[in-house]
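Students often ask why we bother encoding 3D structure as a string. The short answer is that it lets us treat folding as translation between two languages. Here is a chain of 304 residues written in the first language.
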Amino acid sequence: MNKDIFAFIAISAVCMLMFGCAQMDSITKVAASVAASTGVISQSQADSISKTSGAIAKSAEDITPEQEYYIGRTIGAVIIGKYPPYQNQKVNRYLNLLGQTLAQASDRPETFGGYHFLVLDSDEINAFAAPGGLIFITRGLLRCCPNEDAVAAVLAHEISHVLLSHGLQAISKSRITTALTTIGVESAKTFTKSEISQLASVFEDSISDITQTMVNSGYSRSFEKDADKGAVQILQRVGYNPNALVEMLQVMQTRLKPGGADFVKTHPAPKDRIEAIQGNIGEYRAVETPSARQARFSAALGDI
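And here it is in the second language, the structure alphabet:
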């Protein structure tokens, strides 16, 4: 492939970062025209690049609820491929009833595809919130919950990730990569099959890297702090004691293994989160679970 073409593509991407989408689209089209007139690229390539520049600009626009739904499904498929679902209808039904109640009390009670909650059959202590409202909780994490208030706290935290669009903020940075893939497709008229294959491989690997980062590395510490704040608010609205989040983290702290692949790797230390949460909710008030609520919790999760 002509090195000048690679340089042109790179410059176009930089223009988008420097000048923004609308200006970049215009700059790219002008640059393509000039490049074609001076022989740097062919007219066919210039036409392809001009057509693609609009796709790149569009790629940085706000993601629609429908797009968020399909992105979330993709992430969800990756998670289920890594952790098998827990085949227990009673447990999953309980989790969804509780989760739907909490979601309705959040600042975003509805998503395009609705909220869905699933228990993962894993002893790891972990949870995932995919864009669009797909929320996954491992059996290991549920075992850190001594009562229903604690389970509600976990779910409220994950719901907060969704309503704050934390997953989308992680993914949206990669959409320029997806758009640049179109350049490879559009240029198929002039590039060789091996060159197109090479481009496709690079872009697919980039998208895969981003997905793996989201699943394996977790959200930033600031995102986790914001999700805890959101969880406290949701819990208070429904009538659960927000101190349950603190109690769950205290149990978790005794069970996490240094160097593990679960919360140790993807979340801030429980001690740091506890301090921040207590600073938000004020004086600690122990969770006192009504007998009916505890009986419901024990019936659903007693054997988890």
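Translate back mentally: The beta strands are 116-120, 127-130, 134-138. Keep this in mind for the problem set.
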